[in-house]
Every structure is written in C-alpha cells, then in structure tokens.
Amino acid sequence: MALTKNDILNGSDVGREVAFDRLGGSLMLYPLTEGQWAQVEDTQMSGFDFSLDSDELDMEAIDSEQSRAAIMAQLKPKVSFDLAAYQTGSALADAMAVAFSLSGSGEQWTPEEVQGMRPIGIIADIAKVVYEISGIQPDKIDVTGAMRESVARFHEEPRGAEDSGAGALGDEDPEPCAGPDPVAE
Q1: Measuring CA to CA, which residue among 135, 136, 165, 142 is closest to residue 69?
Q2: Rounded to whole angstroms, what are the CA distances from 31 to 5, 76, 77, 128?
Q3: φ, ψ for residue 141 (rounded to 5)?
Q4: Which of 40, 67, 100, 127 has the fewest CB atoms within 10 Å, i.e. is most exposed?
Q5: What is the pLDDT of residues 138-181, one digit of tens each?
Q6: How does 12-28 read in b/e, with b if 16+ C-beta sit within 10 Å?
Q7: Which DSSP helix (H) or strand (E) runs through 73?
Q8: Domain ranges in the chain?
Q9: DSSP per residue over 107-167, as a string?
Q10: Secondary structure class of 19 (helix, strand, coil)
Q11: Is the pLDDT reported for residue 84 higher than 70?
C-alpha cells in the first residue's frame, strides 16, 4: 500500500514513553522531523568555520581534461574553531532537540525551558534518546569527528601530479577537542 501525504507527515506523531530514573518518572518523546533536525544540526555547528581558500586559484593553469584535479590541487581548506561557541551551541542544540521532541505531545516547550531542567546532565541523556528514536546516527551528532572526516576526505581527493596541500590542516591526525561530547553520558 502506497503512503499518502498525510501518512508521511503524521509518521512523526508516534511517540515513545521513556523512563528517566534521574527525573523520577517517564517522558513521552517524539522523533524529530527533517526540518527540526536541520535546525538542531545548524545550531550544533556553532563554533566551526570551514571554507576553501581560492584566493590564489590560477584558472589559466587549469586545462579542460584535468580541471577537477587541477582545482583541487590549488584549493586549501581553512578551518577555525571557537571552543566557547561550540560548547554553547552544542548544549543549545541538545535543548532544542529535547524541546522539539517534548512538544510533539501538543504541549509546547522552548529550549530555554529545557535548559532549566535539573539535574545537570539530564538534557544530554534525554537528547541521546531523542536522536536515537529519530534515527540519527551517532556520527551525525559527533561534530568534531564529522569535521575531521570532512577534512580527511578533502585530502583524499585526486590532486594532480603535485600535491600543494602539504602542511595543511588534516595532514596529520588532530588532537581531540577539549569540549564536551554532546551525547556523552
């Protein structure tokens, strides 16, 4: 049987009651929608700036047969990271995910209300379950790991005869960030 538009849009209305001993009871949690996850993911990326430096791109040195490799050889990744912005964004992203999930029952929650929850660490615990029931893979939540993989993939791309990326970020394994993992228990 083919799904109707209504079936698809209402699919996220299936909640899941989850007990949280630290809260002394259970919560009805709902999976995130695509739009909600996009907002959470955007907030989660706070503190990261990833761009490609093309200021010195020599278009005349690129012939039509090797255009992709020639361009890749000249591009250099630029990554900046603001630890304080990352920590704030990561905590807000978890609070947003929890607020969206709790609001699925019809009672509206804001991230600010969620951030007022006690005990400390409960938001991360609830967010972990929300991500799980939403079908979000752990590597999508681990922003620092995803960023390292992105830089590594950039360096694995064909770069032509000479590799002008020597010394660029990603040539060696970076040290783990000191910030909290948004889903660590």
Answers
A1: 165
A2: 18, 38, 35, 12
A3: -90, -30
A4: 67
A5: 766 665 565 566 666 666 665 554 444 444 444 445 444 444 44
A6: beebbebeeeeeeeebe
A7: helix 67-74
A8: 18-156
A9: S---HHHHHT-SSTTHHHHHHHHHHHHTT--HHHH-HHHHHHHHHHHHHHS---SS-TTTT
A10: strand
A11: yes
Alpha-carbon gap, residue 176 to 165, rounded angstroms:
22
**Beta partners for residue 53, in sequence order:** 76
Radius of gyration of the chain (CA): 21
Query: Closest by alpha carbon to 83, among 180, 175, 182?
Result: 180
Two tokens, residue 159? 């770069």
pLDDT in tens, 151-160: 666 666 655 5
* Amino acid making up residue 28: M
In angstroms, the CA 168 to CA 172 distance is: 9
Q: Find the distance separating the first CA and the last CA of the chain, reported in whole Å.
A: 41
